[in-house]
Write a structure and sequence with these properties.
The complex is a heterodimer of chains A (142) and B (420).
Chain A: H1 44-48, E1 55-60, E2 75-79, E3 89-94, E4 97-104, E5 110-112, E6 121-122, E7 129-139
Antiparallel strand pairs in A: 1-2, 2-7, 3-4, 3-7, 4-5, 5-6
Chain B: E1 3-8, H1 11-18, E2 28-31, E3 38-41, H2 43-47, H3 56-65, E4 69-72, H4 75-92, E5 95-100, E6 103-107, H5 117-132, E7 136-141, H6 144-156, E8 163-165, H7 169-177, H8 189-197, H9 203-207, H10 211-217, H11 220-229, E9 247-257, H12 260-280, E10 283-294, E11 305-316, H13 319-333, E12 340-352, H14 371-382, E13 418-419
Parallel strand pairs in B: 2-4, 7-8
Antiparallel strand pairs in B: 1-6, 1-7, 2-3, 5-6, 9-12, 10-11, 10-12
Helix pairs in contact in B: 10-11, 12-13
Classes of the chains: A mainly beta (142), B alpha+beta (420).
């Protein structure tokens, strides 16, 4: 597997005491040549969250979305401000429970798991389905 | 000229429903600290006749037997949801005054020429609902006092959009005549009695009195109310930058506390929490007061109230200094042989964190000059770790009897809502 180095993680969001990367001493000598090149570090929140007020984190349970890369106990980023479309991964409430599935609008509307071991959920007459939000990312910890 | 008042409908009860889809249409009540009284009711619970502020034990049996759901208050969660709602409002409107955890005034003057304010508010409402799950109501009117009345009209007229605007003379008159005088903002119970004696029972009658006369007969506050009811703006949108003047942390205890060994750690917890708030406000304080009292309701038992203030020569926001002062204040007011029911700490006489005034004389309790230390503690405690000071009670924050609290859905990694 090939990986590309993206950059370092923002330290201001990490609660632990950190060591500053650039220590410039005041007393003498030539100032650090790196100081002009300091860019703000990569912030995971910025990467994962577009609309903070509308974003909630939830925990996935089970294997039904394994095909989409959502493992058991993954943390899902759910943005309630994004309107789901055909094939969006959504969090929906059905029969008083939250589920995470792929939304299919055609040929017949259903909530489709991404694992052949699980059956699709069709919405029966009288059943209430509410789409809570669109899943924009899954954080799997290894 | 238009302002708006946004109010979250049955806020705490609505919050409890956001991550519990199974509670749709189920009556919900939320209880005060220590599960004493009902402080929020869903529409269904209101319909069952559960009054605001009734002691829980009085309605418990009936409410539960009819399938109601009860929660202890979860202010961590409500606070986060409130911040989200306010955040969205601030994205829409340049002038937002957060008035309470579930209310905000909006200044719409600058938007009036570009938008139809009613449609604009409806759009804002549906967006807040979609993005957060919190249902809000919006009242639009020329003055703050009238926005509150516009909001009441939503309820009275059962407006399906939950948004109501009163702007023309006729609309305002119609709303005022239907508002009992005691529902006018700032008119309390005693004032209502006075006004009723003078045959003033609705808001229109109050609005029609000459303001000068009101000032002579009553006071300048009521005069302002009258002017506002007439559509003359006296109260403006206030920015929330104005710093707090004092910070109070106090609790009633779930179980009676009798000895210093139990009481001191509790007071220390209050001190730690209060100082966290102080640092959050970027202030330093130079006055620390502690109070303790027995329950006024158990009057067959000996009663005691104690209150003591400690002056600090140098303003501080270091928890260690406040803990020291809290101890100095508590020891002289504590007497054994009493059942304490409540205690608290009050920090006051604030100065801005960055200004520093040295005391003329050597301060025996010279504050710790190590602000980084407290910063790190705050950072750690904001995460999951809890760093305690030795004198704190580490098991529970205060001896509260609360066992029906919902998870901290939005603020704790360990309590996230689960989806399958």
């Amino acid at each position: 597997m090939k990986v590309n180095y993206i950059g370092k993680i923002s330290e201001e969001n990490l609660p632990a005491i950190f060591v500053p990367y650039f220590l410039e001493s005041v007393h003498a000598g030539f100032p650090s040549p790196a100081s002009d090149y300091i860019e703000s570090p990569i912030d995971l929140n910025k990467h994962l969250i577009k609309n903070g007020a509308a974003t909630f984190l939830v925990r996935a349970q089970g294997q039904s979305m394994l095909g989409s890369g959502i493992t058991d106990q993954a943390v899902l980023v759910v943005d309630r401000s994004i309107k789901p479309t055909h094939n969006s991964i959504v969090v929906a409430s059905i029969d008083g429970e939250f589920v995470c599935k792929r939304l299919k609008l055609k040929p017949k509307m259903c909530l489709m798991p991404d694992n052949p071991d699980y059956p699709p959920i069709f919405i029966n007459h009288g059943q209430e389905l509410e789409i809570v939000g669109t899943v924009t990312a899954a954080i799997n910890k290894f | 000229m238009a302002l708006a008042l946004v109010d979250c409908e049955s806020f705490y009860a609505s919050c409890e429903r956001i991550f519990r889809p199974d509670l749709k249409n189920i009556p919900i009540v939320v209880l005060s600290n220590n599960d004493g009284c009902v402080i929020a009711r869903s529409t269904e619970a209101k319909r069952m006749g559960i009054g605001m502020g009734v002691p829980w034990f009085k309605v418990k049996k009936d409410f539960l037997s009819q399938g109601g759901e009860v929660f202890s208050s979860n202010f961590t969660f409500y606070g986060d949801m409130s911040a989200r709602v306010m955040n969205i409002l601030e994205g829409f409107v340049p002038e937002v005054e957060v008035y309470s955890i579930d209310e905000a005034f909006l200044g719409l003057d600058s938007l009036e020429e570009h938008y139809n304010l009613y449609d604009f508010s409806c759009h804002m409402r549906s967006l807040i609902r979609r993005w957060t799950g919190v249902p809000v109501r919006i009242g639009i009117a020329p003055t703050k006092t009238l926005t509150k009345i516009a909001l009441n009209e939503v309820k009275r007229l059962n407006v399906p959009t939950k948004v109501h605007q009163i702007s023309t003379r006729q609309e305002i008159r119609e709303a005022l005549v239907n508002t009992p005088v005691n529902e006018v903002w700032g008119v309390g119970r005693r004032l209502t009695e006075h006004l009723n004696k003078a045959k003033i029972t609705n808001a229109l009658q109050l609005a029609e009195i000459d303001p000068q006369h009101v000032r002579r007969k009553f006071n300048v506050v009521l005069e302002r109310t009258v002017r506002e009811l007439r559509g003359q703006r006296c109260l403006n949108i206030e920015d929330n930058i104005s710093a707090k003047k004092q910070i109070v942390v106090s609790r009633s205890f779930g179980a009676r506390v009798t000895d210093l060994k139990t009481l001191r750690p509790i007071v220390s917890n209050f001190a730690v929490r209060a100082t966290e708030k102080l640092r959050y406000e970027k202030q330093k304080c130079s006055q620390v007061s502690v109070f303790v009292r027995t329950s006024p309701f158990s009057d067959h038992k000996p009663q005691h109230r104690g209150y003591k203030t400690i002056e600090l020569f140098t303003p501080t926001n270091d928890t260690r200094d406040i803990l020291m002062a809290a101890k100095q204040a508590l020891l002289p007011i504590f007497r054994s042989g009493y059942d304490y029911a409540k205690a608290g700490i009050l920090l006051s006489r604030f100065t801005n964190e960055t200004t520093k005034q040295y005391s003329l004389f050597k301060d025996p309790n010279e504050p710790k000059e190590n602000s980084k230390f407290m910063e790190y503690i705050d950072q750690l405690n904001n995460y999951e770790t809890q760093i305690y000071f030795a004198s704190q009670n580490t098991r529970s924050w205060s001896p509260m009897k609360q066992n029906m609290t919902s998870p901290k859905y939005t603020t704790s990694w360990y309590e996230l809502p689960v989806v399958s």
